[in-house]
From TrEMBL:
Residues 1-27 are annotated as: Disordered. Residues 21-97 form the Core Histone H2A/H2B/H3 domain. This is Histone H2A. Residues 100-132 form the Histone H2A C-terminal domain. The keyword DNA-binding applies. The keyword Nucleus applies. It is found in: Chromosome; Nucleus. Keywords: Chromosome, DNA-binding, Nucleosome core, Nucleus. The lineage of its organism: Eukaryota, Viridiplantae, Streptophyta, Embryophyta, Tracheophyta. The nucleosome is a histone octamer containing two molecules each of H2A, H2B, H3 and H4 assembled in one H3-H4 heterotetramer and two H2A-H2B heterodimers. The octamer wraps approximately 147 bp of DNA.
Length: 133
């Protein structure tokens, strides 16, 4: 090795000791808010398959982010309808149960402190009597 091409210590195995480039996360590359790296780690640790492709955590993060945004938007609308500024479990339940597709997806899910949808069977309502005058 020549004296001029000396490897600096502490460069982390890199050649040269110039300033390190700022790392760009896979979430930023994909334009997502959900953590792609963490989801990839969970996929590996969960042993759902022997190998995990590079695109799998990105795709899963995008799907989860879309579902979360959809539920939060509907729950925010439900909270606004009830003149509240904070989303509660009740608003989440109303949002999910009033939406056809989300209701089907989360059919077997119980939301804690969500209550039930307001529903009275028409048989139980008092009969309307029409006056023949």
């Amino acid at each position: 090795m020549d004296a001029n091409t000396k490897v600096k210590k502490g460069a982390g195995g890199r050649k040269g000791g110039g300033p390190r480039k700022k790392s760009v996360t896979r979430s930023v590359r994909a334009g997502l808010q959900f953590p792609v790296g963490r989801i990839g780690r969970f996929l590996k640790k969960g042993r759902y398959a022997q190998r995990v492709g590079t695109g799998a955590p990105v795709y899963l993060a995008a799907v989860l982010e879309y579902l979360a945004a959809e539920v939060l938007e509907l729950a925010g609308n439900a909270a606004r309808d009830n003149k509240k500024n904070r989303i509660s479990p009740r608003h989440l339940l109303l949002a999910v149960r009033n939406d056809d597709e989300l209701g089907k997806l989360l059919a077997g899910v119980t939301i804690a402190h969500g209550g039930v949808l307001p529903n009275i069977n028409p048989v139980l309502l008092p009969k309307r009597t029409e006056n023949a005058s």
